[in-house]
Amino acid sequence: MKRTLFNPDHDAFRAVVRAFYAEQVVPEYAEWERAGAPPRHFWTTAGKLGLLGIQVPEQFGGGGQRSFLFNVVLTEESQHVGIALGGLRVHTDIAMPYFLRLANAEQQTRWLPRLVSGDAVAALAMSEPGAGSDVKALATTAVRDGDHYIVNGSKTFISNGANADLIITAVKTDPAAGRGGLSLLVIEGDSPGLSRGRKLNKLGLKAQDLCELRFDDVVVPVDNLLGREGNGFAYLTDNLAQERLSIAVNSQAAAVKALHDTIEYTTSRKAFGTTVASFQNTKFELAACATDIEAGQALLDRALIDHENQELSAADAAKVKLFCTELQGRVIDRCLQLYGGYGYMLEYPIARAYADARVSRIYAGSSEVMKVIIARSLGL
């Protein structure tokens, strides 16, 4: 079915992104997987091409665009060539909105040019060893001491954590105030007392940096407070819709890629004297996947239109995240089966896609959390 989301500006941007990925990322990607993160020149090159600050005002070096659909293009094109760039989405889709919406004029002047150019990589440090989806249970503290906060605690599962220069960190400035005691501090990556723990050995997403962070009496200027003290919970909640939408975009594009690759494989692979694609079961499986993908695309595109109009609700974001991430798992699993034993070999992209897909149903709120949010919207 024809999509009508994108205009000529988005199409021109897509051509730039596609060339960048094909020429400068794909040839190096296997090395990034071995290293566990993209090299620094990836960020600076992406910055020079204008990929990192699409919604950032032009005065700070950004593109000055309002449309989130440019970010969608970045994600779709990465999956088009079979690369997982979750760290890029953390920088552009998840962390950047905090700097745009909450940073004051002085902070924006200080931080945005670095983020746009790729000289600074952003991360969001929220999850803790004892608190994943339960933001209220966060235990990292920030105690005010004159013109500074003293931060102590630890974070885990932090994407871009090992290489981040600006870390938006959820802290308790008033531990007795529950949700009202949560604040957001931007902690510089070279702050004394900040230590990067082990790089976490993940099932998939091998080129995505993920690590633990430890804060031991880290001194953070009060000038690095994002927004108002005590409003952190509301700020985190406000951005979750876009974060979940970003994940849905990636999951949907990954399913599209898996179907495309599997059609190519089954039409060339022979078994019992004929192509695998000629078997009725193969046709039925691929037809079911194609139909599933069309349903997911329709739901996702409708959500993207709502988001463009600033009308996407938390419940609707949960619906699209739930459906598209579950869809990703279903489609890739069915496609892998059609590869037979080769589907289990990591030299085949479908095997890596299978491993990459599993976390989509967990991070930014698990499928079970999405169902709770949706149920609440039904009055249940």
Oligomer: single chain
Total helix count? 11
Helix content: 40-55%
Major β-sheet profile: 4 strands, mixed
SSE topology string: HHHHHHEEEEEEEEHEEHHHH
**Shape annotation:** globular
Distance between the termini: 35 Å
Q: Hey, roughly how much beta strand do the residues contain?
A: 15-25%
**What low-confidence regions span 5 or more consecutive residues with pLDDT below 50?**
none
Spatial extent as radius of gyration:
21 Å
Mean pLDDT: 95
State the total count of DSSP E strands: 10
The helix/strand class is alpha+beta
Strand order of the largest sheet: 1-4-5-8
Q: What is the structure about, briefly put?
A:
With 380 residues, the protein is α+β, with helices and mostly antiparallel strands.
Question: Any descriptors?
Answer:
380 residues, four-stranded mixed sheet, globular, 11 helices, alpha+beta, four-stranded antiparallel sheet, 49% helix
Describe the secondary structure blueprint for this structure.
Blueprint: H1 8-25, H2 29-35, H3 40-48, H4 69-80, H5 86-102, H6 105-117, E1 122-125, E2 141-145, E3 148-159, E4 166-172, E5 182-188, E6 194-199, E7 210-221, E8 225-226, H7 232-268, E9 270-271, E10 274-275, H8 280-308, H9 314-338, H10 349-357, H11 367-377
Parallel strand pairs: 1-4
Antiparallel strand pairs: 2-3, 3-7, 4-5, 5-8, 6-7, 9-10
